[in-house]
Amino acid sequence: MDLNEKRVLVTGGNGFLGNFVVDELKKKKVECISTPTKGEYDLLERNDVYKMLKQESPEVIIHLAAKVGGIEACKKYPASFFYENMAMGLNLFEAAKDHKIEKFVAIGSVCAYPKFAPIPFKEQDLWSGYPEETNAPYGLAKKMLLVEAQSYREQYGLNAIYLLPVNLYGPGDNFNPESSHVIPALIKKFIDAKEQNKKEVVIWGNGSPTREFLYVEDCARGIVLATEKYDKSEPVNLGSGMEISINNLAELIKKLTDFEGKLVWDTTKPNGQPRRLFDNSKAKKEFGFIARIGFEKGLKKTIDWYLKNR
After folding, report:
1. CB 3.0 to 4.6 Å from 141: which of 41, 85, 235, 293, for a disulfide?
2. What pTM did the predictor assign?
3. CA atoms of 73 and 126, how far apart (whole Å)
4. Which residue ranges form the domains of the chain, and what is each CATH number?
């Protein structure tokens, strides 16, 4: 698909990942990009979604909009995470079918994988078990986007693809302590502690879980590559191939923020999923995606952005 000749609508196009996806589309010389806001169209309302597609007249939809948050937010609002992500997907797929959209790119989540999926996570293992309990409602709602993509492809011929990004980080991330993910949460904690001359930083869990992280700019590039080049029904992982324990992550961010105190682990708090590491071979094979930004370099960029923009 030659995107520079298409009208592309990006839901969530003004958000953390969305800003980078829009930048990537502009690099591809896409001139007609719409990034409607919730104030203009509420994706939870079916009539708003139909109105949006009628007025914006897209040929391609990249669906990034989602209700997201860390472990604490997922535990506190499980029904909201399930309902809102499900509702957006249901409304958008039905409207996309009725408006004859040429391509629908649905963005899933690593949280869709089973809690004890074999390492590294392979796309065929998505249905081998139940997701980690603290984020299961969110993960299952995001996994339903895959079911919708495959169902609408089979029944209506809608060219829908489904991508699974691993944990993202980078400039513009959410640093709100009530809803942020682990990297922005730790960056804020260490910088606050350093500036307040605190002697320790308290971190959830015991530090043993591992995570794979993908720099947001790399993820955006992968999404646009898939939009151009991938047209199959099978899901595809988007990751970096690295794995780091939360303990080592905390030590690295501590070093990069020049915090000299100690780490205290609050083991009364949940760890989340024990391990996360993707098999990224399908993305490389199908549309040539390989992550480019090294992890420490990406962390430095994220910390610098936060210090300048908080």
Report:
1. 85
2. 0.95
3. 24
4. 3-172+212-242+274-293 (3.40.50.720)
